Amino acid sequence: MKTLLLICFTLALQPLMAQKDSIPEPAELEYYYRKIAPSDSHIQYSGRVDKSNDAKYVFSHCGVSIRSSFEGSSIAAEFTEYGSGTATGTNYFTIIIDGAVQENPLQLRPEKHFYTLAENLNDSIHTIEIFKRTESQVGTVTFQGFFIEPGTELHYPRLQSNLKIEFIGNSITTGYGNAASFTAEEVQKNSGFNSVNQNNFMAWGAITTRNLIAQYSCVAYSGRGLFQNNTGSTKGTVPQFYDRVIPDSAQPLWTEADRKNFEPNYIVINVGTNDFYAERVKGRSKYVTQEKFVNAYVDFINTLRSYYPQATIICTVGVMMSDDYPKGAQQWTRIQEYVQAVRRHFVEKGDNRVLYLNLGQQTAPYGEDWHPSIATHQKMAETLTNFILRDMLNR
Question: For the whole prediction, is pTM greater than 0.85?
Answer without folding.
Answer: yes
